[in-house]
């Protein structure tokens, strides 16, 4: 583990930070008033034209598993590549997408933490274990492509995570829990208010021996529990530099170690991220972000027949850097205009050794990697016409895929293969537009259409992998994925009653999928398209201390291409639904129950291996003992339903069984 020098200016900034609460007004504050929010410029008037659902802080901190990826399941239509969470999945398989567009372990949604893309520069996965729910103020999920800034990654939608400011938690808060397998979770957050700025530092450490992901009838002496040991440290500061300008700085360090299926099948992921953000809320509003991410991943693959190492992926160092600048000039005339540019560069290398299962000796050393870049220009305008608001935007992206190579050597260093792939570049355009009509005091009608773009990741282009007995080949000729979609919806909101319904159709052209090309052999390829049509609905009721929220997605999705027509995309259920009931008395007492149902899906593109449907019940209880101490109880999968997360020719992995947690919450 090493910490880049870019992190130290952020730490040095923290002691000088202070706090003030924003009043949420759209008008700029007086020139002699310093208002610090710790957030970006916020939504424009037409933002509700798109299908957006918010996960509140209370919903985040009361998630039964304490994992942010499981909290995202409160929005039906959000799915990970596999059904495992960040305790029992290989980190490189933690891709997230929306609207049943299929999966190949790469993220097809744009995931932002305080405005910064969080996907791994090499693999494209999201390090969910490093994003603790208690650090967040809220999450906004917009289902549908295109997002203006950083829009090249918003293929299936955008997931925006905002860090909590000190007004959402006490000066010091700590939590410790232990479950029925003696696994532990410990976290602490400290904040300080100094004048008109603030600083927040948070740490979390989760560890445990895990559960057996292998069914009882398939276990062997070498079978291992899905043990995990991960920690993260998050520091964030906000300081005013002028009456209407604030500087935000953030640092994230994390390290995650896991063991999956067999003894010795260990993985390691670690990172050092840093970002700075300058937000201006004067007459000329602006939002400028710069960030640097240093990531690394290592993995050991164990033979499922001889139970000895067959691959040592020693390291995969990668770097992500970029930024954006957005300007909102005061053009008047009931318009809100956004113009700007964004940039992202991802580069990385794979270093791995192939090992003989018989002798234990290295048979081949592999090295592969490359560099992807994207530079985007965007403009979007909202036009307010009384009860009607119109919006339209466009992007132009200049992308490059270059420096790609794949090299193999013998154990004594003799070059066996040395392939250099030709560089590629080009321009892609994308658009989005919508309309929002307020038909009454509680009713809104909306419609939107959009297009989107995603570059293949370095992992998809250059790294083959094996999940025994299936080999998946890389493909350096992969084309960009492009999406076109449209939706129409209606919202009813009285404050105590909320109902939202959306119908949509999406077409993902040149979708990158793991295509079966032979027995136990797949290759990443562009298929003709994935077409998804569906209905999303959500609702909520609030009766004093009692609340009820629900969300469902019903989707008809099909893959189109040779041998695939009519097949459902892999890892894609037709029906997903969640429901949450909660009772909250005061600030400390809370009882919440969550039910989730996920329909059946297929492991592969040719629909040979089925993953059955499952339904889980979760619960969260927080009961105050004193003014500063509360008892916390959590339950995951309390019905102990069987969750099949992988099925490869009958070789099965399972998700979390019944798990009960108990602990304390201290707030000062």
Description:
With 668 residues, this protein is mainly beta. The chain has a single domain (5-667), classed as TonB-dependent receptor, beta-barrel domain (Maltoporin, Chain A). Helix content is 3%, strand content 57%. It contains 4 helices and 39 strands. It has a 24-stranded antiparallel beta sheet that branches. A 5-stranded mixed beta sheet has the order 1-6-7-4-5. A 4-stranded mixed beta sheet has the order 23-24-28-27, with no helix packed on it. A hairpin with a 2-residue loop joins strand 37 (644-648) and strand 38. The longest helix has 6 residues, at 8-13. The protein starts with 7 loop residues before the first helix and ends with a strand.
**CATH topology (fold) name:** Maltoporin, Chain A
Radius of gyration: 24 Å
Q: Distance between termini?
A: 33 Å
Named CATH architecture = Beta Barrel
- Report the oligomer: single chain
The CATH superfamily turns out to be: TonB-dependent receptor, beta-barrel domain
Strand coverage percent: over 45%
CATH class placement: Mainly Beta
Shape: globular
Mean pLDDT: 90
In DSSP terms (H or I, runs of 4 or more residues), the helix count works out at 4
What's the total count of β strands?
39
Summarize the biggest pleated sheet: 24 strands, antiparallel
Overall tally of structural domains: 1
Secondary structural class? mainly beta
């Amino acid at each position: 583990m090493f910490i880049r020098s870019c992190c130290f200016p952020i730490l040095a900034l923290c002691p000088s930070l202070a706090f003030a609460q924003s009043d949420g007004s759209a008008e700029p504050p007086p020139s002699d008033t310093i208002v610090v929010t710790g957030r970006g410029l916020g939504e424009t008037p037409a933002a509700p034209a798109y299908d957006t659902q918010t996960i509140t802080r209370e919903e985040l901190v009361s998630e039964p598993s304490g994992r942010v990826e499981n909290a995202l399941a409160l929005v039906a239509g959000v799915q990970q590549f596999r059904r495992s969470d960040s305790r029992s999945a290989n980190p490189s398989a933690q891709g997230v997408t929306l609207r049943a567009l299929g999966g190949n372990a790469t993220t097809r949604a744009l995931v932002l933490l305080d405005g910064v893309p969080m996907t791994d520069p090499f693999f494209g996965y999201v390090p969910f274990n490093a994003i603790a729910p208690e650090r967040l103020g809220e999450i906004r999920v917009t289902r549908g492509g295109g997002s203006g800034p950083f829009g090249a990654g918003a293929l299936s939608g955008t997931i925006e995570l905002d860090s909590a400011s000190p007004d959402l938690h006490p000066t010091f808060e700590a939590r410790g829990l232990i479950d029925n397998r003696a696994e532990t979770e410990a976290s602490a957050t400290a904040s300080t208010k100094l004048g008109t700025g603030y600083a927040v530092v948070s740490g979390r450490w989760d560890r445990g021996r895990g559960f057996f992901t292998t069914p009882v009838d398939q276990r062997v002496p070498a079978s291992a529990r899905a043990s995990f040991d991960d920690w993260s440290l998050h520091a964030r500061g906000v300081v005013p530099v002028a009456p209407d300008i604030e500087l935000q700085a953030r640092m994230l360090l994390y390290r995650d170690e896991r063991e999956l299926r067999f003894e010795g099948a260990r993985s390691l992921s670690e990172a050092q991220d840093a970002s700075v953000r300058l937000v201006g809320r004067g007459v000329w509003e602006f939002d400028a972000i710069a960030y640097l991410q240093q990531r690394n991943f290592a993995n050991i693959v164990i033979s499922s027949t001889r139970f000895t190492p067959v691959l040592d992926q020693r390291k995969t160092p990668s770097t992500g850097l970029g930024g954006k600048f957005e300007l909102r000039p005061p053009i008047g005339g009931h318009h809100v205009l956004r113009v700007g540019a964004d940039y992202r560069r991802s580069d990385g290398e794979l270093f791995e050794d192939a090992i003989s299962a018989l002798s234990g000796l290295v048979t081949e050393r592999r090295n592969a990697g490359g560099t992807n870049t994207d530079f985007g220009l965007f403009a979007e305008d909202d036009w307010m016409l009384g009860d009607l608001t119109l919006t339209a935007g466009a992007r132009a992206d200049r992308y490059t895929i270059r420096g790609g190579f794949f090299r193999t050597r013998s154990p004594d260093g003799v070059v066996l293969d040395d392939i250099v792939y030709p560089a590629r570049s080009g321009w892609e355009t994308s658009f989005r537009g919508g309309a929002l009509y307020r038909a009454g005091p509680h009713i809104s009608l909306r419609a939107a259409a959009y297009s989107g773009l995603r570059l293949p990741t370095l992992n998809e282009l250059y790294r083959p992998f094996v999940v025994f007995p299936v080999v998946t080949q890389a493909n350096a000729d992969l084309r960009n994925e492009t999406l076109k979609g449209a939706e129409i919806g209606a919202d009813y909101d009285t404050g105590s009653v909320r109902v939202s319904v959306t119908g949509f159709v999406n077409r993902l052209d040149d979708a990158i999928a793991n295509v079966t090309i032979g027995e136990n052999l797949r290759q990443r390829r562009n298929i003709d398209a994935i077409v998804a049509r569906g209905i999303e609905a959500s609702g909520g009721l609030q009766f004093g201390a009692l609340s009820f929220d629900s969300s469902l997605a019903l989707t008809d999705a099909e893959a189109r291409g040779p041998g695939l027509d009519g097949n459902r995309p892999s890892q894609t259920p037709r029906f997903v639904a969640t429901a949450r009931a909660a009772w909250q008395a005061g600030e400390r007492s809370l009882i919440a129950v969550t039910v989730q149902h996920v329909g059946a899906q297929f492991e592969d593109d040719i629909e040979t291996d089925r993953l059955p449907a499952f339904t889980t019940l979760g619960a969260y209880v927080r009961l105050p003992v004193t003014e500063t101490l509360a008892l916390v109880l959590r339950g995951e999968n309390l019905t102990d339903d069987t969750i099949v997360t992988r099925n490869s020719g009958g070789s099965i992995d399972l998700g979390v069984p019944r798990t009960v947690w108990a602990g304390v919450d201290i707030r000062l």
